[in-house]
Amino acid sequence: MKIAILPGDGIGPEITAQAVKVLNALGESFELESAEVGGAGYAAHGHPLPQGTLALAKAADAVLLGAVGDFKYDSLERSLRPEQAILGLRKELGLFANLRPAILYPELAGASTLKPEVVSGLDILIIRELTGDVYFGKPRGVRECPDGPFAGQREGFDTMRYAEGEIRRIAHVAFQAARKRNRRLTSIDKANVLETFQFWRDIVTDVHKEYQDVELEHMYIDNAAMQLVRAPKKFDVLVTGNMFGDILSDEAAMLTGSIGMLPSASLDVNNKGLYEPSHGSAPDIAGKGIANPLATILSAAMMLRFTLGKAEQADRIDNAVKKVLAQGLRTPDIYEEGTTKVGTEQMGDAVVKALG
Ligand code: IPM
Ligand code: MN
What we know:
Elements lengths: L1 E7 L3 H13 L6 E4 L4 H7 L5 H9 L2 E6 L15 H11 L3 E7 L12 H4 L3 E7 L11 E4 L9 E4 L6 H16 L4 E6 L5 H14 L6 E6 H10 L6 E4 L1 H14 L7 E5 L5 E5 L16 H13 L4 H16 L2 E2 L9 E2 L2 H11 L2
Parallel strand pairs: 1-2, 1-3, 3-12, 5-10, 8-9, 8-10, 13-14
Antiparallel strand pairs: 4-5, 4-11, 6-7, 11-12
Helix pairs in contact: 1-10, 1-12, 6-7, 8-9, 10-11, 11-12
The structure holds 3-isopropylmalic acid and manganese (II) ion.
């Protein structure tokens, strides 16, 4: 089995190195091959998603990505910015289903900004559609404003759209995921205002006919954003479009105290996938050896579970992470008094040791 390792920018190389260490310690014969992506891709090959990197990602059975982005690339034109690598990989590999679990480890209950009783035991799964919506809709750009009080001025515009088949396939993923959990699905939309999301609601309702054992609720995005901080444990699985999912998943991540703990999977129709931490490249702490590698290590576990069919190895990693947390080891982002502060490498080493 071939795994493409794309470390990327900022803390990306440091945290991916720890995940690679863990993968190599499992005793499996994975073939790991690395390539530059994001700002690193631009620096080495003049493009955030170099052809060789894309070819490697396509040829591999799974992709493990660190993070992309750095202040120093902010002035590049949009098509050359590091973020384009992520968007390009999603589009080129057809990674339409983004799974972002938000789990609060009991040991980290104090790290949340919410009261422990609101978040303790939190275990929700956000499923974000990843290749449609206003992110990829066309036309888009800057044009002359055709009418209204600003007619004749320049206006920026994007197109929000979802094809029926796009909604159906993400709805199936969500209902099936709910089936494996507590059989409750909340579909999040803005059907009261947007045509796209009234259509979304209608299609999700139709797909629900095939999953009568799952309880379906529809909720507007603004209400969902509020309910997520008011009573997040009322949710089980949430499904939503690309942009709402982008925003809600950051909110959900923060419920758990540290975005440094949360993995994610982006899957295609065959469950081939790209795995990456939910957090960004944190250029402010890059190279300091203090970034939390656990989200990336847990992403490697998701990869073993969903794409590589190695659920037992995934369990080993998940358990090892729980073990190091129970041992009181903490990177600075999750540090509390009475625990032991460790760096990125020490954390990676501790997980390897805890694999048993
Ligand atoms: C994410 C990120 C990306 C997104 C950016 C980097 C393009 O915020 O994965 O959530 O908006 O999808
Ligand atoms: Mn985001």
